[in-house]
């Protein structure tokens, strides 16, 4: 029952991903004393109520003696909003289960505070799933101060991202492309270099999804761009960052409140990010096709010999239509 409630809290938080940064997309579910779902909530945009408060408002009196299930430890601080611990105590919740502790020192300690007030409060429920899923980017940001970077690309089985003549539409399947458009609605920013804008003239928007919110489009590099490039249309906001240094790029993005970035660049930009150790996840759609010649996904990444190869750990392999989807993260040394 608690696992199920946590999965519901996670699903609810997925729907607000991309709208809460620099705050975490948290999900909360309130069960009444008999274990029935009486409230579901997710973090509102910055300055708005936290997930617990949204779920408690829906539950009303039925929260008394019930359980709150939250993806993140309830906050204990007066930030832009009052502490969620106070809201939970005022509602008379008897039990709180959360997935991960809040790494933000200002907000943490909610679990201990609730226990001291007599609530049966405990963390760790589906912690790995939440850490890898909806809170991954924000946890990375809270711990490192840098946005989380997912390098996403589509390649053939022989590792090509474009054919010899430069054409690349469409390497991956319709299913994979549809999935990427959903992904684009759930991140804060999408990043490419000037080379990709010149070569592909991409729109970098989420398409095929009604009323989708659009991520911030980020073009990295100093080169001139054709004024008519599609990234400059009015479908979404676009910023240019005129440096190639990954940490300078990421610092500019933090200043804009960006926490979760999708890197869709070409070999040069991605090479710089990999060389700097600033790719936090690799998301690859491998299409069962061969090209034999053409552009490879990654350029110089500062690796000269096999012992210097960037080590990754595969987290998940699954099918997306005819393509194989691989998610991998840097190996911890
Ligand atoms: C929760 N539930 O839904 C969220 C939490 O500026 P504030 O007042 O909105 O506080 C932001 C901090 O609160 C954020 O850094 C994180 O530590 C926590 N976010 N906490 O209990 C929520 N979004
Ligand atoms: Zn809170």
UniProtKB/TrEMBL annotation:
Pathway given in the UniProt record: Cofactor biosynthesis; riboflavin biosynthesis; 5-amino-6-(D-ribitylamino)uracil from GTP: step 3/4; Cofactor biosynthesis; riboflavin biosynthesis; 5-amino-6-(D-ribitylamino)uracil from GTP: step 2/4
Highest classification ranks of the organism: Bacteria, Bacillati, Actinomycetota, Actinomycetes, Pseudonocardiales
Residue ranges annotated for the CMP/dCMP-type deaminase domain, each copy included: 1-121
Gene Ontology molecular function, alphabetical: 5-amino-6-(5-phosphoribosylamino)uracil reductase activity; diaminohydroxyphosphoribosylaminopyrimidine deaminase activity; zinc ion binding
Keyword line: Hydrolase, Metal-binding, Multifunctional enzyme, NADP, Oxidoreductase, Riboflavin biosynthesis, Zinc
Cofactor binding note of this UniProt entry: Binds 1 zinc ion.
The protein's Enzyme Commission number: 3.5.4.26, 1.1.1.193
Gene this chain is encoded by: ribD
Source species of the chain: Umezawaea endophytica
UniProt-listed Pfam families: dCMP_cyt_deam_1, RibD_C
Residues at the active site: 52 (proton donor)
Amino-acid positions noted as binding NADP(+) in the UniProt annotation, renumbered to this chain: 154, 170, 196, 200, 266-272
CDD domains documented for this protein: Riboflavin_deaminase-reductase (cd01284)
NCBIfam families: eubact_ribD
Protein name, entry field: Riboflavin biosynthesis protein RibD
């Amino acid at each position: 029952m608690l696992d199920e409630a946590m999965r519901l809290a996670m699903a609810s938080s997925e729907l607000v991903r991309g709208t809460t940064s620099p705050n975490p997309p948290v999900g909360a579910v309130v069960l009444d004393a008999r274990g029935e779902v009486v409230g579901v909530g997710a973090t509102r945009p910055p300055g708005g109520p936290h997930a617990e408060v949204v779920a408690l408002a829906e539950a009303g009196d039925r929260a008394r003696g019930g359980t709150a299930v939250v993806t993140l430890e309830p906050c204990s601080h007066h930030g832009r909003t009052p502490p969620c611990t106070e809201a939970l105590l005022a509602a008379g919740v008897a039990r709180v289960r959360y997935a991960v502790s809040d790494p933000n020192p200002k907000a943490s300690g909610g679990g201990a505070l609730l226990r001291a007030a007599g609530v049966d409060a405990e963390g760790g429920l589906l912690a790995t799933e939440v850490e890898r899923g909806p809170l991954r980017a924000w946890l990375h940001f809270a711990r490192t101060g840098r946005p989380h970077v997912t390098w996403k690309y589509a390649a053939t089985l022989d590792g090509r991202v474009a054919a010899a003549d430069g054409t690349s539409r469409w390497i991956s399947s319709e299913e994979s492309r549809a999935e990427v458009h959903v992904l684009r609605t759930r991140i804060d920013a999408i990043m490419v270099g000037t080379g990709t804008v010149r070569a592909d003239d991409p729109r970098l928007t989420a398409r095929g999804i009604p009323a989708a919110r659009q991520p911030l489009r980020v073009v990295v590099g100093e080169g001139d761009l054709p004024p008519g490039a599609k990234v400059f249309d009015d479908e979404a906001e676009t910023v240019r960052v005129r440096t190639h240094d990954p940490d300078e790029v990421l610092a500019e993005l933090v200043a804009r409140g960006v926490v979760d970035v999708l890197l869709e660049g070409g070999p040069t930009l991605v090479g710089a990010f990999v060389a700097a150790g600033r790719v936090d996840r690799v998301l690859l759609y491998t299409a069962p096709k061969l090209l034999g010649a053409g552009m490879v996904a990654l350029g110089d990444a500062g690796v000269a010999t096999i012992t210097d190869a960037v080590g990754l750990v595969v987290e998940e392999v699954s099918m997306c239509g005819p393509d194989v989807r691989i998610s991998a993260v840097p190996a911890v040394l």
